[in-house]
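Thread title: Can someone regenerate the structure for this chain?

I was given the following input by a collaborator and told the matching structure tokens would be attached. They weren't. Posting the sequence so someone can regenerate them.
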Amino acid sequence: MLSTNRLLVVLLALPDTLAATVVLRNQCHAETWLHTVYFECHTHTIESLSVDVAHPISPSPQPLLFDLPWPWTHPPTCTPPLPEIPTGLCIFVNSNFADGRGIGIVTTPALAGHVASLPAFRSPQKSREGSLNVNVHSRLWRTEEIERKGIGSLAARDLEPDTEMLKYTPAFMAYLEHTLPTLEREALWRTALLQLPQETRDSFLALSYVHKDKRVRVQAIVQANTFQLDIDGVNHLAVFPETSRLNHDCAPNAQYVVDAEMLTHTVRTTRRVREGEELGIAYTSPMEKAEVRRDKMREGFGFVCQCARCVNSERSDSVLNTIHSLEAHLNDWTPSSLATPAMADQLIALYEQEELQGFLDVPFGHRALAANAVGDVEGARDWARKAGREVMGKDGRGAVAVGVWEEVVRDADGHWSYGRRVGRG
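Best answer:
Regenerated them for you:
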């Protein structure tokens, strides 16, 4: 039996077509952070269900209708209809996907059809665009055992800011639901994994996990290594084994973006990284107080964060208080607002002081609007371009904020912020 009644899954949320969007109060653009959701953990199960062998729940009762060429290499295995999912869930596997890497997906037939229509399946050559080949080791990083952290990723040589290091497709994806009993979900997911190529399956099973109960090993691996991926408006869990080797840091030197059309997870550096330095990403919002961040790491991943910002939490929290105060002023568009471009410059400096270069879209956006508010059109356009680039590197090209900053670039003097604070430059 599991020791708790709920199996925690920590999700990294992305905006818009990629995932849920969190809009700060009175904020003119969106911010997104890690979200926490829970699987209900049922302690009862069906005696005939073998979770060790992952016996299929039932074969698909009838041919599944697709308007596209059938992309799956194994006959789908499906659950009966579920209370929240009338069509039930099925296993869809393409062992040839991404040049033989393969992909296992647990989702509904309709959503599987949507996945099959994505460019990742229809135009896989597009995944080769950019500085990295997908699913090919760049030799810019290496993994090794790190004291008190387990396996982590280190820079294999000096890396400049904005260097793409990893670009991979998921090995496994699953519809996020709260309906299946835990052991039935485990059986379903294990069946999908058993149909993957051996190398891909082994890379998944080698990942770290929190819960020690072997009966739910696959779910425990997903819990500790999942990213959130939006498929036609429905949240799915996605595991990218290689990128899962990046440990957490509250002042990360790397940032990632998930492309929901190409099904790729790309990681880039956000500042200069020296050879041998550990590479890290933020598992939770670095803009929250240290106690909140550490609680999330403890509850979601089973460790206490010992990064510099958490260890020196009094200083870090004091800086965060100043950041939040500046953002409140910059978000104030009343006639009595005290906001100025200099205040936005101070905000940018504090983000950089806290080594939050991967999240500069927020202060860059404030700087663009602060410039526009005092009639500095060219300054507004320049900062809006910077903000847009940062958004795309964090939230993807489909993010709402990309359009916000493109609007400023296109028509700064027609934007609602133009001239709102004239005389305060």
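The chain has two domains: 74-281, 291-414.
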